[in-house]
Design brief:
Two copies of one chain form a homodimer. Chain A is α+β, with helices and mostly antiparallel strands. Helix content of chain A is about 30%, strand content about 25%. In chain A, strands 3, 7, 8, 9, 10, 11, 12, 13 and 16 form a nine-stranded mixed β-sheet that branches. Chain A has a five-stranded mixed β-sheet with strand order 20-19-21-22-23, with helices on both faces. The two termini of chain A are about 20 Å apart. The model of chain A has no long low-confidence stretch (mean pLDDT about 95). The interface between A and B is large, with 51 and 51 residues. Chains A, B: Pfam families: HGTP_anticodon, tRNA-synt_2b.
Chain lengths: ~450, ~450
């Protein structure tokens, strides 16, 4: 993409309403724009990252056997009356009346609708296990939206729902999502730790939050150091095999959020294995049994011919929130440092003197060859000042920068900078292409 | 995808509420489910097609220089007061009050918000031309939603907005979208004809509807036969060159919707060049000058340093509607016939006897090899009746079907059926793989 044809509205000044670093950097890097309290437009650079996060989530959901559909944003109130949550949900639910005075709402979550879809079509144990998910915009009318897209009102969530015949198979469904989440966050270059969560009145031990570690995280978390080195399940993990050894290895060492923290148990660990850190919740998985299937009559016939309510779980990932979490975990004083897998572009090329006989052909050639190799490039072909060009590239945080200046090119070299390490090398155009291709393709 | 792990809720009976063929077939093929009047869930098969349509639209928008962003669904009422449309829009606008009694709405279109984004960041003619677009769910509270997703309330639209310094450059922006639309619909295997549309009080000749020809189309259209053979602009068309010769060649021959039809002009054509047909509107492009930039103060500085209101156009594609239009244009009595480029899967493999020593290994091997070649396969590994399996495959309309039965495999052959022509061939597994790979990859 040529910057001269792109839309990247960089802000020079730090917007004063932004309290946390990810909010500040997203506004400054022209990734988002607030349209009203807690409601944002995703500008081109922000949308690119959002889509990359979505693709990773989708690939790992598919690997774990979840099937994607898409439920609408607007739901009828009557569905929520069946579960009893229409009144219980309170003011966070955005309630709407249509032109025929029908009561509707902008979905904050989808347990009711997915249960309705399930009961409409599925009758037999033969159709189980089933896990249906979607990635859709939700609305929660927070009293005081803040922290940019980290606590917005309109936000993008992946929510999966599992349907199983009994608790045992439901546990396997739960384990599949548990493993999928470990892989999902790892692929984004994040350190995510599953931590036991409060299951509320239903009880049981099948609820975990996935917490990203980041120095500027929203809350304190406590964990056993061994979790930091725990291996991530491989790409070829057989999701239809018994996954409980993996889940056990991840849930045995101590790990707790502030809310669930047990000072005594944590204190009993060897001192040098105790880690306290800051974290950000990006996922939550939950087995809730027959809560909705009982209330809404979602039953299946067993092999013996009796009808039983189906066992369900739900599995959320805060897709838009992850963008903020990624920045909290990956930035320095100059801006964002994107992990390769979610970077909006992989390489930024800076032409120091557009129109120059030396810089133009080298930049155009490198741009064309990188793109042909499947590497996404943002090519700064504008006539901005050099200082502004460098600052913008550091701010938007692409993994590599290539600077083409007349002086270097007289000696036949480009400057190649690694954004994460700051390391710079002077390389010929050919060596630059080889280095970047090797670093950025599999 | 193994059908045993997919969610494809086929309906045996034709739902009586469905008045048109695309609605009937989408319900029967398990592509959509109505959640309330004019509001649908996109079941897995429907979502797959929707995403393929989106990808084609995105690729062609990018080729034409449009840059993608994403505006939220919920908009503040105040923006619409600035343009005067808050009151003018009437009951089709879904109006919402949030918990703080602020007036909001579910966006039916985005002229106001994009103009707001533009005026917030863009100050100079140097940043033009600019075309920003998004693909987002819209809501129009139709009195009587009908025809399935063809006239729903919550629907997916691509809407692009161009910003130019004057009318002449705005015309070039218009032409870029005109050419992009010809390519977009052609890639979906559709015959789309641009037809002059009413420009309302603004006047001028810069508004066209793109009408898909389909026997079961919603309205009558009239055109010169030469348009049916008009060449589509090539992939390597230079969008930054003068496109007016292309646009003229497409707009000179007679073509009109019912509303704009001129019986005398049509009658003056040679009799054998007059075509009257049925059509479905799937796109609408529109130059509206400074209507919104005047009202909302979206100005840019010219090279001479004066400030002028920016010239705008808007360019819509009915993304979810296209799915219905595609089915109206491509079906027979047995079901849908997907064009390759938008088919949810390319090949359906039917294992006539899952568990059989002969059929299982051949199916598994073919399935694995096709997928490895980048061909998407729906593998029916279920133990349904043969008749039901055939009917389902015909109904969902994948371009090719492969039937693996014990009898054929005793002779070492599979049956390969072309869904569009109905032609069947008996081929060895190797010849099947070669044939499908050749037919389905570039």
């Amino acid at each position: 993409m040529r910057l001269s044809r792109y839309f990247l509205p960089i802000l020079k000044e730090t917007p004063k309403e932004a309290e946390i670093v990810s909010h500040r950097l997203m506004l400054r890097a022209g990734m988002i724009r607030q349209q009203s309290a807690g409601i944002y437009s995703w500008l081109p650079l922000g949308l690119k990252v959002l889509r990359k996060i979505e693709r990773i989530v989708e690939e790992e959901q598919a690997r774990a056997g979840a099937v994607q559909l898409l439920m609408p944003t607007i739901q009828p109130a009557d569905l929520w009356r069946e579960s009893g949550r229409y009144d219980a949900y309170g003011k966070e639910m955005l309630r709407i009346t249509d032109r025929h005075e029908r009561e509707m709402l902008f979905g904050p979550t989808n347990e009711e609708m997915i249960t309705d879809i399930f009961r409409s079509y599925v009758r037999s144990y033969k159709d189980l296990p089933l896990n249906l998910y979607h990635i859709q915009w939700k609305f929660r009318d927070e009293v005081r939206p803040r922290f940019g897209i980290m606590r917005g009102r309109e936000f993008l969530m992946k929510d999966a729902y599992s349907f199983d015949l009994d608790q045992e198979t439901a546990r396997h469904a739960y384990n599949r999502m548990f493993v999928a989440y470990l892989r999902t966050f790892d692929r984004m270059g994040l350190k995510a730790i599953p931590m036991k969560a409060d299951t509320g009145p239903i009880g049981g031990d099948l609820s975990h939050e996935f917490i990203i570690l980041a120095e500027t995280g929203e809350s304190e978390v406590f964990l056993d150091k061994s979790l930091l080195e725990m291996p991530i399940p491989a790409k070829d993990t057989d999701f239809w095999s018994d996954l409980s050894p993996i889940v056990e290895s991840w849930t045995t060492p101590y790990a707790a959020t502030d809310e669930m923290h047990d000072e005594a148990a944590f204190g009993a660990l060897e001192e040098d294995t105790r880690v306290s850190a800051r974290g950000i919740e990006v996922g939550h998985i939950f087995y809730f049994g027959t809560k909705y299937s009982d209330a809404m009559g979602a039953k299946v016939a067993t092999a013996e011919g009796t009808e039983v309510p189906v066992h369900m779980g739900s599995y959320g990932v805060g897709v838009s929130r992850l963008l903020g979490a990624l920045i909290e975990a990956n930035h320095d004083e100059d801006g964002i440092i994107w992990p390769k897998s979610v970077a909006p572009f992989h390489v930024g090329i800076i032409n120091m003197r557009p129109g120059d006989d030396l810089t133009d052909p080298v930049c155009e050639d490198l741009y064309a060859k990188l793109e042909a190799a499947g590497i996404e490039v943002l090519y700064d072909d504008t006539d901005s000042r050099a200082g502004a060009k460098f600052a913008t590239m550091d701010l938007i945080g692409l993994p590599f920068q290539v600077v083409a200046g007349p002086r270097g090119l007289k000696d036949g070299v480009l400057e190649v900078k690694d954004r994460a390490t700051g390391e710079k090398e002077m390389l010929t155009p050919e060596a630059t292409l080889n280095k970047l291709t090797a670093a950025l393709t599999d």
